[in-house]
Write a structure and sequence with these properties.
- With about 400 residues, the protein is of the alpha/beta class.
- Helix content is about 40%, strand content about 20%.
- A five-stranded antiparallel beta sheet has the order 10-9-13-12-11, sandwiched between helices. Strands 2-1-3-4 form a four-stranded parallel beta sheet, with helices on both faces.
- The radius of gyration is 22 Å and the shape is globular.
């Protein structure tokens, strides 16, 4: 992880449900180091939470006032970030968490996040729009979570039956094997990823193994909260052996930021980035990131083409300069599928070199023939530089 300029450890402040017995030991285990020489330290303050249900008494547990009181106490420790390490926003609504974070930052001057916001950020980083859910809650809470995530553009189905528990302390008593079984069930139905939505459920330990078994990311809530906290604190996490999110999530998030900005700067229909980074599980035949205009078809999970053999990519390999195509009448011609299946009629490709090799490339697509402007090519150059910076600083 990236060290702080002052040489001090990154200090993570965590607001913790009072009856939670899972997240603190799991967070320390994920970090892997403790003591005076640790690069990251985690600090916890408890707020009263004992039961999860859809009623006024339960909702009151998540009022802003007790959260702010605990956040101010954490701020006394000069923490670099404050996270509500709880998933209540998943049924109370994401705006509830956004307002809480804004209030914490206003009161303390410290950036803030929550477990729900971290899970949604993980979905954005990996392009997840179909999410399987592993849940300990009662059915009505589970259905509310499905609705909440749907409002954020993430479609969920309850392929795995919730455990039907409302006592928050009891969530941690669910055997890890049962949690793993539920994750497997949740992966059915063409899910792009599975999320364990509760910070008092032991799902983190199984994530790496289940990701290899299922072939999709597993976002445990404790892991996701730690990942986003480290990211906000500037630690640039790249921790091996703890699942894809802690290993690669921050790098993917940087790619997504670049692609979204490039899409906005060019007014294009789609932007993508492809790169070979085996240590991060990335290969050019699948995009490492994508941004697209509403109504434009995604190509994120299409691995049908041998990208290195394409005429346009071979041209990049030989020339190592941007390829700007206002139309496809001249060579090099793109694959016909790009035109026939995805409707692209003009594009710009920006090579990304690393250690002297063509590691990958940025693509900017237009559904119509287009004379790319100087501003467009400048935006591509800026995006390429930002991608290089992200690759140079990965750990």
């Amino acid at each position: 992880m990236r060290a702080k300029p002052d040489g001090l450890p990154h200090r993570l402040g965590m607001l913790t449900p009072s009856s939670n017995t899972c997240l603190e030991p799991v967070t320390y285990r994920l970090l892997g180091t403790t003591g005076a020489d640790a690069a990251v330290t985690a600090h916890f303050a408890r707020v009263p939470v004992t039961r999860i249900a859809l009623d006024g008494d339960c909702d009151a547990q998540f009022d802003t006032a007790p959260m702010l009181a605990a956040a101010r106490r954490l701020a006394d420790a000069k923490v670099d970030v404050i996270a509500w390490n709880g998933t209540s926003g998943s049924w109370l609504g994401v705006d509830h968490d956004r307002a809480l974070c804004a209030a914490i930052t206003e009161a303390t001057g410290v950036p803030a996040t929550t477990s729900t916001l971290a899970l949604l950020d993980a979905c954005a980083a990996y392009g997840v729009t179909r999410l399987g859910l592993a849940l300990p809650y009662t059915r009505d809470v589970a259905e509310r979570i499905v609705a909440t995530y749907g409002e954020e553009g993430v479609r969920c189905a309850l392929e795995a039956e919730p455990f039907g528990i409302s006592d928050n302390e009891a969530f941690a008593r669910i055997p890890e094997g049962e949690v793993a079984r539920q994750i497997r069930d949740a992966a059915r139905g063409a899910a792009h990823a599975v999320a364990v939505v509760c910070t008092n459920v032991h799902g983190a330990r199984s994530a790496e193994r289940l990701e290899q078994e299922l072939g999709i990311p597993v976002f445990d809530s404790v892991t996701a909260t730690l990942w986003k906290s480290l990211d906000l604190a500037g630690a640039a996490p790249a921790l091996p052996g703890q699942g894809t999110l802690l290993r690669t999530g921050s790098l993917r998030a940087r790619f997504q930021e670049v692609l979204a900005d490039l899409l906005a700067a060019t007014g294009a229909d789609r932007t993508t980035f492809r790169v070979d980074l085996p240590e991060h599980g990335l290969h050019v035949d699948l995009t490492a990131g994508e941004a697209h205009r509403e109504g434009v078809r995604s190509i994120r999970r299409d691995a049908s083409l041998d990208q290195r053999r394409l005429n346009t990519v071979e041209w990049l390999e030989c020339n190592r300069t941007p390829l700007v195509q206002p139309h496809f009448e001249a060579v090099p011609h793109p694959p016909q599928a790009l035109i026939d299946v995805y409707g692209v009629h003009a594009q710009m490709l920006g090579p990304v070199e690393y250690d002297g090799a063509l590691a990958g490339w940025l693509s900017v697509h237009s559904m119509e023939e287009r004379d790319w402007s100087d501003a467009d090519t400048a935006a591509l150059a800026t995006a390429t530089a930002r991608i290089h910076s992200a690759l140079d600083h990965r750990l």
